[in-house]
Amino acid sequence: MKVLVVDDDPAARDFTCDVLMGGGFNVSEAEDGSAALAKVAQSIPDCIVLDLVMPGLSGFDTLREMRKVHAKMPPVVVLTTMDGGGTKVYATKVNKADAFVTKSEMLDPQNGLLAQVRRLTV
User: Fold this and answer.
1) How far apart are CA 82 and CA 93, in angstroms?
2) pLDDT at 61
């Protein structure tokens, strides 16, 4: 399974990629929303892990643009430091993200990143 990780913070992106590769996923990276749109235009991954807070196109903007262009989108997991309930509702209900994981719960075996990506790609 191919997963695209989109995060403007190189350290966070590297850590996320390491977690996913450790879980057996093939991973590609994008450093911002524009780069993510370009990568998805070339090859649609099986899942996208998307940070919300990025310069230029935010994660919300990136997800909206992807949904405009691609009728059949892969599942999207929002991975963010923003942990307010309103952010989760906005990400999943309004922007139609398939899962929401805070970076603080990323390694949780039950609901963390690997669990969500596996759930969405099986």
Assistant:
1) 16
2) 92
Residues 122 and 108: their CA atoms lie apart, in Å, by 19
Classify domain 2-121 by CATH architecture. 3-Layer(aba) Sandwich (3.40)
Four-residue CA torsion sign, 83, 26, 28, 44: negative
Instruction: Give the C-alpha separation, 104 to 100, whole Å.
Output: 12
Spatial distance between the Cα atoms of 112 and 109, rounded to a whole number of angstroms: 6
Q: Residue 24: left (phi > 0), alpha (psi -120 to 50), or beta?
A: left
List the chain domain ranges.
2-121
What is the chain's length? 122
For the chain, what is the mean pLDDT?
91
pLDDT, one tens digit per residue, over 51-97 is 999 999 999 999 999 988 877 889 999 998 887 667 776 777 767 88
Note the pLDDT of residue 38: 95
For 36, 38, 51, 104, the CA distances from 113, given in Å and listed in that order, are 19, 24, 12, 10
